[in-house]
Design goal:
Number of domains: 3
Order of helices and strands: EEEEEEEEEEEEHEEHHHHHEEHHEHHH
Shape: globular
Strand content: 15-25%
Radius of gyration: 26 Å
CATH superfamily of the largest domain: Regulator of chromosome condensation 1/beta-lactamase-inhibitor protein II
Amino acid sequence: MFLKCFQEKFADHAFLLNSNQELFGFGNNATGQIGLGRRSNNNKISEKFAKLKKKIPKGKIIDIQCGYSHSIIQHESKFTEITSPLFDDNSILEISVGRYHTLILTTNKKLLGFGSNDYGQLRFENTAPQPIPIQIDLPYLAFEDISNYRICCGYSNSFLYYSLSFSNLEEDLIKLCKRKEFCDISFKTQDGEIIEAHKLILKYRLKDQNENQIEKLKQIISQKSIQESNQIFEMIYSNNSKINPKLYSEIKEIINSNEKIEETMKRIYLNENENENEKDFIIERKEKQYKFPKLILIMRSELYRGMFLSVTDDTSNKVTDYSELSNESFQILEYWIYSNQIKEGIQITKEIIDELETGIDYFQLNQTNPNLLDLLINKFQNQNQN
């Protein structure tokens, strides 16, 4: 019994997989894409389906992709023929093939490509063919939930796209806590593990906003295991209520645990003291410059995330805003990024709502529930009723 047929629109060969995990190929084999051990077509019905002569490694076949002149088989077993494994101990999340090129997305947030690069479909500067998988430089993937991403190869082009997922401010901060990008302070646990964190977050989440509280935190962490330390930092970054009560009793004197995360982020946004280099990113607009802490923008906007993690030179601290948002719409958007709240003192108009409907897509904000647009519409309706 055949379970599945594998065939792509631009391929003139195909595979069939039966319930015994036996693989059969038929169609064009001019370049050996069926794997018969010879270059000849296999189209005759009288021959039925030529069972692949080349041995398939043991392990369940997960997926098969047919390119124009090549085929990729994904299975559960591991390669042993190559002395330097291509994928370390990480699993392949998805494979997609084009006419002459292939993309591979792995669970450890890497995108690899090989094959033809004549049209830049592999995103390498060198357009020469790549015989083995090479990592494609997309640093922002390290910050993303890779399970939301998909890849698709066309005839001579490639797509990396994602499905929308919802998050809130606390969830975004927990993600930030678990990432090493832009960390600027380290803590050593009792068992010798290193935890990296962000001074900006600690300053506003610890009481009194001074270095003494950070030193106290270092002393506490030095006496805790890595598991306990992770709980403490999740509490600091998100007010996570799942922390062990005993642990909480030890840190409650130094943490602003009664302050909502939204209020903490609002204080960071409203801080006017620029001498401490907290507002380390400049956005140039027609009417003026705006300064923001880069760290929060990265956490909340995929546009900024991709921008900051892809650029390493000095210009990465300054960009020009091409969104064409009005000053009011821009302020609403940036205030929302930091606080998940609508900025007070701005009259909501239909024009602002229309602008921000486009602006939210332009800045690729993390999806929240409720989202900014819904809240703006509700506020606009309430204004008109009053």
